[in-house]
Amino acid sequence: METTRLIIVAVGGQGNLLASSVLGEAALLNGVPLRMSEIHGMAQRGGVVESALVFGDAESTIISDGEADLLVGFEPAETLRAINKCNAETTVITNLAPLMPFTVNIGQGVYPDLAELQNLIRAKTAKLIAFNAAKLAEEAGNPLGVNMVLLGALTQTGILPLSAENVKEAMERKTKKAFLDSNLKAFDLGFKAAEQAA
Fold first, then answer.
1. Fold category of 4-100+110-197 in CATH
2. What pLDDT sits at residue 46?
3. Are the CB atoms for 94 and 76 separated by under 8 Å?
4. How many CA atoms lie within 13 Å of 90's alpha carbon, on the beta-carbon side?
5. pLDDT by residue (tens digit) across 134-165?
6. If residue 4 lies in a helix (H) or strand (E), which one and from where to where?
7. CA 58 to chain centre
8. Contact present, 143 and 134 (Cβ < 8 Å)
9. Pairing assessment for the beta strands 4-11 and 48-55 based on DSSP bridges
10. Which of 198, 175, 146 lies closest to 26, judged by CA?
């Protein structure tokens, strides 16, 4: 089976690990071999959380610089920070709602301009799907559902060997019942947003 390499980057608390868990369950349901690793870093203090998922026949979870087929960023600056994992064939999906770092909030730093950030990503990759996932999560009735919005967008690309049905079934198994309806709605909104971006 062909190998597909996915990097997911987020700030602690955005639900990166749950998104990875849902994708892992979906791969299991679909009989797709998957290797996965996570770097938690300073997640509890709002630091970066990175997941590496390798679908298909692979010996390792390590995704070296320039090897990612897909990059999904839950926070725009973190997406840009991970751009070294991409190449000219990579598809990038990013949330455009920034979470300001502590240094920016106290006036010691400057957040990158979002238009310039997108230009930098486009210059190094094949395709950029960028939209405000936080707004769609709120529309779905769950402000914490950014991860499910981005899972919808990721699934829509068709690059992963997973169907929307697989991912939704995995969501039913892995997410809390109280949030299932809003999570499914968030997924659908993300799916549509990626369709429109294409």
1. Pyruvate-ferredoxin Oxidoreductase; domain 3 (3.40.920)
2. 63
3. yes
4. 28
5. 999 999 999 999 999 999 999 999 999 999 99
6. strand 4-11
7. 21
8. yes
9. antiparallel
10. 175
H-state helical runs in the chain: 16-30, 76-81, 102-105, 114-124, 133-139, 146-156, 164-174, 177-197
Exposed, middle or buried by CB within 10 Å (0-12, 13-18, 19+), for 197?
middle
Q: Domain map of the chain by residue range? A: 4-100+110-197
Per-residue CA distances from 166 to 128, 169, 172 (Å): 24, 5, 10
Tell me how far the alpha carbon of residue 193 is from its chain's centroid.
Answer: 14
Please report the pLDDT score of residue 86 as a whole number: 98
Helices vs strands, H then E, count in the chain: 8, 6
Residues whose CB is less than 8 angstroms from the CB of residue 2 and which lie 6 or more positions away in sequence, other chains included: 56, 57
Residues whose CB falls within 8 Å of the CB of residue 158, separated by 6 or more in sequence, listed in order:
none
Dmax (CA) of the chain: 50
- Sign of the dihedral through C-alpha 157, 159, 162, 163: positive
Start-end of H helices in 58-113: 76-81, 102-105
Return phi, psi of residue 117, to 5°.
-55, -45
Q: Which parts of the chain have pLDDT scores under 50?
A: none
Instruction: Give dist(CA 9, CA 51) in Å, integer.
Output: 7
